Amino acid sequence: MKFGIFYEISVPRPWAADTEKKVYDNCIEQAIHADKLGFDYCWAVEHHFLEEYSHCSAPEIFLTAIAAQTKRIRVGHGINVCVPEMNPAIRIAERCAALDIVSGGRLEVGTGRSATWTELGGFGANPDTTKATWDEYVRVLPKMWTQERFSHQGTYFSMPERAVIPKPFQKPHPPMWVAVTSPGTEIDAAERGMGALGLTFGSFAEQERKVKAYRDAVRHCEPVGEFVNDTVAAVNFLYCHENPDEAKRTGMRMVGTFGYLAAQLVSAREVYASPSYASFGLLPQVRRQAQAPGAAAETPPGMCVGDPDTLIKTLKEWESTGIDCVNFLLNAAETVPQQAVLDSLELFARQVMPKFGKIEAAA
Amino acid sequence: MPLFGQLDTAAHVGRASTVTSLMTDAESFAVDNVDVLAFTYEIDIQRGFGTTPKALHPSIPSYCQIVVRRHRDGPFGPFKVAELRVNARAGTHYLAYCIGAFTDNDAAVKFFRERYGAPMRRADVELDVRYYGIVGSVVVGSKVAFDAVLEKPHYISGSDVLYTPNLNLARVGNETKLVHQEMEYTIGKAQRGAATLKAFDAAAFGDANVVLRQPLPATFVQAKVTYTGVRFLIDPNRPAMAGTETVAA
């Protein structure tokens, strides 16, 4: 099994002049550390207007900084929002190719369509059509990368013949993924021969069902790209500490803060009645569903918060569901001190990773 | 920590309802074939903060709903209700603070004020299905407080429509509380369309700071609506995560 880190870049209020700078610096330091420790991926989201929850509206810039300071870790642009009002398809192709070149062929390309009215409404996008625009984008991106010149007459965008340049460093093109939040999107990913980048928490049984459905469908896929990426990744939180009580106390504060910030946003489903959005998105399962707002929080099963032995046991269970990779959120609104995040990464790499066939890299 | 509302509830207590006894689950009742027309608008964010109690977080972005319900029958006979709600979060819970509400039935005024603490007053409330759309309106005395049309309706799935519970500022015993008022919707037919606003007087509902900005699609459903027991009360001036007390339904 592979392991990655995953950034929303959440910035807590109050916002001083240097708050965002400090958070960005911390994230970059963590990514450099993770690279040295042997983590496989560093993903960064694309979100807009999501106050405190995510200040990561230009992930290609953030990932470029990481790529320039690391040697081995793959950089995941996850996800590019495939909605014309937010990103023209041509610009996605160009930015990804440039990042792939700068990173020396270490780019993973995530695709998706945004789950919040906060974002879609901010750009004047139509929630009814985002699935269709995403579908059109993922079919043209590989062509823009592999054809010397490209033209397109489509439903949601068209362009005359031009050379979309630069071309990616990886040949024929970087691996492609789909963000999976809504039920059934794992099938959309499989049918197109794209990796499933899980972004919601579910039970072990639910994950196993999704993986099986994905594996069944991907066998008969018609890949949108030049090759099939049949990788299934899940997302989780990570806080690893020798003391299980401390791990739970600090880790669950992070988990609770993340869910708290996510709940403040307006999902597309909340205000825009549309079959296009069947779920709330944004890791909704983390949110507290207790009877009343003040009710005590419970530790969701499968959360990677604990001592090394606990995490080994938890991750073995996740591995048994058939997933190939787990991407970890390391912090939320800086609730975990930076040194504690770095120590957690190191302890995880030293004591947990070797149990999954990974040799600890030189720190 | 997300921003909190800034409403000074002390200034509103004078006209708040007084709960005589909280609605219980044992007393819950359902009304079949209720027409529910909901108009949703983003609102001026900075002024919107002043419409939301300090216990709650305004959503990002702030938005409100004007909801009109037509009950063809019920425990007090036929009645119609119109509510102005500013949507917010109590901790992580999706709720809406009810700025003001109107009904055309005197018994309903008494019921909603005394059992849910709703800011309910008497007015002419209309919900009409016309050939060109579905009309919702509120006339207080001789003044139009609200008039809007859902135009170009088209059918959608009932499962695509969501409603959140209300919170009503009310006197409960010797204290001022936000009283939870939940309606369960079993939705049959559902339609969606564009909202055309002809009149809106936020002050008539109770707070002139609700300034409508961007309209979102309006919805119209026919549903079985169940009025359930009050499950919790919130101190309006403390964060909901700390100031919530559950009620034995």
Task: Give descriptors for this structure.
heterodimer; A: 363 residues; alpha/beta; B: 249 residues; mainly beta; Acetoacetate decarboxylase-like; 16-stranded mixed β-sheet; 4 helices; 16 strands; globular
Task: Give a quick rundown of the structure.
Chain A has 363 residues and is of the alpha/beta class. Chain A has 11 helices and 11 strands. In chain A, the strands form 2 sheets. Chain A has an 8-stranded parallel beta barrel, surrounded by 8 helices. A two-stranded antiparallel sheet of chain A has the order 5-6.
Written account of the structure:
- The complex is a heterodimer of chains A (363) and B (249).
- By secondary structure, chain A is an alpha/beta fold.
- In chain A, 39% of the residues lie in helices and 16% in strands.
- In chain A, strand 7, helix 6 and strand 8 form a beta-alpha-beta unit.
- Chain B has 249 residues and is mainly beta.
- Chain B has a 16-stranded mixed β-sheet that branches.
- In chain B, strand 7 and strand 8 form a beta hairpin.
- The chains are: A alpha/beta (363), B mainly beta (249).
- At the A-B interface, helix 4, helix 8 and helix 9 of A face strand 3, strand 4, helix 4 and strand 16 of B.
Draw up the topology in text.
The complex is a heterodimer of chains A (363) and B (249).
Chain A: E1 2-7, H1 19-37, E2 41-44, H2 59-69, E3 74-81, H3 89-102, E4 107-112, H4 117-122, H5 130-146, E5 150-153, E6 158-162, E7 176-180, H6 185-191, E8 195-198, H7 204-218, E9 232-240, H8 244-263, H9 268-271, E10 304-306, H10 308-320, E11 325-329, H11 338-352
Parallel strand pairs in A: 1-2, 1-11, 2-3, 3-4, 4-7, 7-8, 8-9, 9-10, 9-11
Antiparallel strand pairs in A: 5-6
Helix pairs in contact in A: 1-2, 1-11, 2-3, 3-5, 6-7, 10-11
Chain B: E1 17-19, E2 29-43, H1 45-49, E3 57-71, E4 79-90, E5 93-103, H2 106-116, E6 120-122, E7 124-130, E8 133-140, E9 143-156, E10 166-172, E11 175-181, E12 183-200, H3 202-205, E13 212-215, E14 218-227, E15 232-234, H4 240-243, E16 244-246
Parallel strand pairs in B: 1-10, 5-6, 5-10
Antiparallel strand pairs in B: 2-3, 2-13, 2-14, 3-4, 4-5, 7-8, 8-9, 9-12, 10-11, 11-15, 12-14, 15-16
